[in-house]
Amino acid sequence: MVQVRPEIAYDCDVLVIGGGIVGLSTAYAITRAAPGTRVTVLEKEPGPARHQTGRNSGVIHSGIYYRPGSLKARFAVRGAAEMVKFCAEYGIAHAVTGKLIVATEREELPRLHALVQRGRENGIPVRELGIPQIQEYEPQVRGLAAIHVGTTGVCDFVGVARQLAHASGADIRYGAQVERIDRRPDLGVAVRTRAGEVVRARVLVNCAGLYCDEVARLTGDDPEMRIVPFRGEYYELARPDLVRGLVYPVPDPAFPFLGVHLTRGIDGGVHIGPNAVPALAREGYGWGVVRPREVAGTLAWPGSWQMARQHWRYGAGELRRSVSKRAFTTAVRRLLPAVTQDDLVPTSAGVRAQAVLRDGSLVDDFLIKQGPRTVHVLNAPSPAATASLPIGREVAKRALGMLGTA
Fold this sequence. Notes:
- The chain is α+β, with helices and mostly antiparallel strands.
- Helix content is 32%, strand content 27%.
- Strand 10 (178-184) and strand 11 form a beta hairpin.
- It is globular.
- It starts with 11 loop residues before the first strand and ends with a helix.
């Protein structure tokens, strides 16, 4: 085991594991709040934002979907405004486009009206639209009713992550995969990387995303959840002129997934997706990526089986759309009738790090826990990129509080 010895100086005050947008925002927040604090970030990839941050639809979410008072609601609403300001300040590509949430079936209308109320409770300006108004915004989109959310936008989250890394002044070490952690509550934390490097810190922050539960267990803490990876598959629209902006279906409140949506990105292209299918590896960006140890770990968690029993019908539909382009196209045509199979060009997929509890519940809010000298970010999928600046400040506050008592 790696040993922490009192006679050896700390290499840093705070050690952050994970170089995605949440980890880098945390480093940025720490050095902004307490200049002179020494921060080191360990990232196993050769550069920042290689997983959830760099493999999403690039949407700055308004916060309309999330339960009033929850971390997701508060941080997304605040984070959306801050993200636009951050991008403007540093010249990072972004646009505030607004979006439509469209009901295509009568049974969706009550859920759409509930979203209007939720948006207002969260302080988000929402405009209700009838069929003629939908056509004004999106001539090719069909629906019975819609709402327009003006604060939604798009941006280059990878560019944001790079700027956070630069502006933080932290010592960021790429290609540094954590292998062992030795935590001594009375002394500190020592981390050894696969390359044999040892980093000693007074406080550790776990922002490891897809591996956050494993890192938590390496410290000796029981996270009381497991990450179950869900792959989100995307297509690019060969006829981007069919879509002007962002168009979403009415989501099912039983799931933290938003459904297949249409997103015109900052590059002018239109992405369609994602679906949500269980991945066979934490970095399982295609059906051909299988890691038996990780699959076994997922299957060994009782919550995985409980989740499957509770939501098998939903999962079956997602799997069908994954293996059948025709089924995926049919789902898209509910919103965009003009689309054909030939219009959909496969593009890179993402993997959502979804926390699942022992009883099979999908953790719906951001989840941040603390242990001796450690702060663990245990559930931070979408809208975490949007909310990354407020999340970073919250995690930084907890880490700096520990420094004050260390």
